[in-house]
Each structure stands twice: as structure tokens, then as C-alpha cells.
Design goal:
- The protein is an all-beta fold.
- The protein is built from 1 helix and 19 strands.
- It has one helix spanning 2-6, and strands at 11-14, 19-21, 25-27, 31-35, 40-43, 48-50, 55-59, 67-70, 75-79, 84-87, 91-101, 112-115, 119-128, 132-135, 139-142, 148-150, 154-156, 168-169, 180-182.
């Protein structure tokens, strides 16, 4: 279904049943929506690798919360190259490092992530190493105490109502002066160490 959607711009792939996979799905192109439809798609590996110039939206049209989840040690979804991923709604769970990994083996990509809703459970929501991550909504439950590891690019929290309580981590090896953090005017930075 994902292969067919890749060639049908603005199409929707709707989950009709729960899915369990042991290998990753790779999306190399296309502009389409994945509708969780109240179903669970789980994998013991990275669930999705989104490559190239793919533009993917994930939502849940059902009142029953659909879920993407993995038990992989890496990430639920990798965003590579010049991809764009928009999360509108749904539940996302990863027992590994990140729900979304925007880096290519620790290197910067030109990927973009937009989160406007959803519930995210894991050690950290995203390794922000792409062009831009914009957070406008969503609820975050992160074991590491911060939802975002900030490596490269721009992290925009300007329209997120919970930005005043949002934490992020910048590793020591990163030149923080090259990062762009956009906060609402009311935000207070408590700890910069």
C-alpha cells in the first residue's frame, strides 16, 4: 500500500487492521497520508525510513487512539535527506533512543518535522538534526526528562503552549551558537548548562 501511495500524490493509506512487522518499511518518494484509523502498527525494528523528498503526514481519524510503536533500540522513524513529516494525531511509542531521528549517522540532514498533535512516549521524542523541527502541539512523556536532543538546525517552539515547561538537551560536542531556538515571548530559560 505504501508503494502504491508513493506514486499517487495526496493519497491516503488507512490501516484496516493491527499490523506487526519485523523489518523496516522504506519510503523513498511520494506525498501522502498514513491514517492510523485507531489501529496499531508495531515493529521489532525501525518502523519507517523516510528518504528522498518524501512528504508524509500521519494522523488518526478514529476516536480510538491508533498507535505506531517499536521495540527497536534506535528509533521509531528515521527522517533522511530532504523529507518532510507532519504529525497531526495518534500515539507514538519507542523503547529505544528516539521516536524520530533526523540525523544520518549523527550527521545533519535537510529533513523537516512538524508536530501539531499526538501523544509521544519514549526516552526522547526527537534527535533534532534536520533543517527544522516545529512543535505546535502534542503531549510528551520522556524517560530522559527532555523531549528533544538538539544537534543541528532550528527548533521552533514559538506556538507550543507548553513551551515554558519544555526541556531540551544540547550535547557538549555541539556548537550551540550554530543552533536556532525559537521560543514564545513568555518562555524563560532556566538552565543553560
Amino acid at each position: 500500500a505504501l508503494t502504491a501511495a508513493s506514486s499517487l500524490e495526496n493519497s491516503t493509506v488507512k490501516l484496516l487492521d493491527n499490523i506487526s512487522t519485523t523489518t523496516s518499511c522504506i519510503i523513498d518518494s511520494g506525498k501522502f497520508t498514513i491514517d492510523l484509523n485507531g489501529k496499531t502498527w508495531q515493529s521489532s525494528d525501525v518502523l519507517l525510513y523516510i528518504n528522498g523528498t518524501s512528504q508524509i503526514k500521519i494522523c488518526d481519524s478514529s476516536e480510538n487512539a491508533g498507535c505506531l510503536m517499536t521495540t527497536s533500540g534506535d528509533a521509531l522513524i528515521f527522517l533522511m535527506d530532504e523529507t518532510k513529516l507532519e504529525i497531526e494525531s495518534g500515539n507514538f511509542s519507542c523503547t529505544g533512543n528516539y521516536i524520530f531521528n533526523m540525523s544520518d549517522s549523527g550527521m545533519e540532514t535537510s529533513s523537516e518535522l512538524l508536530i501539531s498533535g499526538g501523544w509521544f512516549v519514549g526516552n526522547s521524542v526527537a534527535s533534532v538534526a534536520g533543517r527544522k523541527a516545529t512543535i505546535n502541539g502534542g503531549e510528551f512523556d520522556c524517560a530522559w526528562g527532555y523531549p528533544f536532543e538538539f544537534l543541528y538546525g532550528t527548533l521552533d517552539l514559538s506556538n507550543y503552549k507548553g513551551a515554558s515547561e519544555m526541556g531540551f538537551y544540547v550535547p557538549d560536542f555541539i556548537d550551540a551558537s550554530a543552533l536556532e531556538l525559537i521560543l514564545p515571548e513568555s518562555a524563560i530559560i532556566i538552565n543553560c548548562s
